[in-house]
Amino acid sequence: RVCVSACIPLSLPRLLIVYPWTQRFFDNFGNLSSPTAIIGNPKVRAHGKKVLTSFGEAVKNLDNVKATYSKLSDLHCEKLHVDPENFRLLGDILIIVLAAHFTKDFTPACQATWQKLVGVVAHALAYKYH
Amino acid sequence: MTLTQAEKAAVVAIWAKVATQADAIGAESLERLFSSYPQTKTYFPHFDLSQGSAQLRGHGSKVMNAIGEAVKHIDDIRGALAKLSELHAYILRVDPVNFKLLSHCILCSVAAHYPSDFTPEAHAAWDKFLSSVSSVLTEKYR
């Protein structure tokens, strides 16, 4: 569990580095000019923690993620205007960070479970879009 | 999409390590693909897809060999994979969406085996490289 909490905040900087167009949502975050800048950026780090907390809520309410994320979904659609494809991208980055962290323990079966989880989370976040 | 010199170097550097166990990583990537995305199994009704099967290992080998060729000719991936491109367009006709899925699983396997080498920059380079390979393999589809 502790290791997973470390992986989630690591995913956001990696998303911004691997898919630089995702930086479009973070114009006010300051210096995102290089991988080093992104990794050291305090706003990125803070946002990573926010995402972690929110993800934790989903995991705690796995039987009702849609309800748990209802307001967050509204927010991402109406205020943040985030294309839901980005939720998929972040989920996949998280999976790769987990793979690097857990190495051989991150078996295909383990990955399959996590792919389902990030899929459920992404779906719930996109659910209220209109 | 073209790879920068730095990106090409990152791809080549990691490939040097992956090549030492290419077959295993290939088989593992396919296992990940079939576990996480069961719909991809529809392309292999004729295969024994159980873990460790000879067919899985053989096919994983094939995939990794092709990637190795692309790395060797990283300045002309299109030329290196021309025949494979035709094979996928006219015979195999694997839906393009599946190339992203397999690429993702290959990245997972590489990350799991070489975590300290798989820095964000190396990850970005490999994602771009596999994207390039996928593009070449689907460019003759129509």
Structure description:
The complex is a heterodimer of chains A (130) and B (142). Chain A has 130 residues and is mainly alpha-helical. Chain A contains seven helices and no strands. Chain A has helices at 2-18, 35-40, 42-60, 65-68, 70-79, 85-102, 108-126. The mean pLDDT of chain A is 92. Chain B has 142 residues and is mostly helical. In chain B, helix 1 packs across helix 7 (120-138), helix 2 (22-36) packs across helix 3 and helix 2 (22-36) packs across helix 6. Chain B is globular. Chain B: Keywords: Heme, Iron, Metal-binding, Oxygen transport, Transport. Chain B: Belongs to the globin family. Chain B: This is Hemoglobin subunit pi. Chain B: One of its GO terms (biological process) is hydrogen peroxide catabolic process.
Layout of secondary structure:
The complex is a heterodimer of chains A (130) and B (142).
Chain A (H helix, E strand, L loop, with lengths): L1 H17 L16 H6 L1 H19 L4 H4 L1 H10 L5 H18 L5 H19 L4
Helix pairs in contact in A: 1-3, 1-6, 6-7
Chain B lengths: L4 H14 L3 H15 L17 H19 L4 H4 L1 H11 L4 H17 L6 H19 L4
- What do we call the CATH topology of chain A? Globin-like
Number of helices of chain A: 7
Going by CATH, the homologous superfamily of chain B would be Globins
Arithmetic mean of pLDDT of chain B: 95
CATH superfamily membership of chain A, which one? Globins
The biggest beta sheet of chain B, please?
A: none
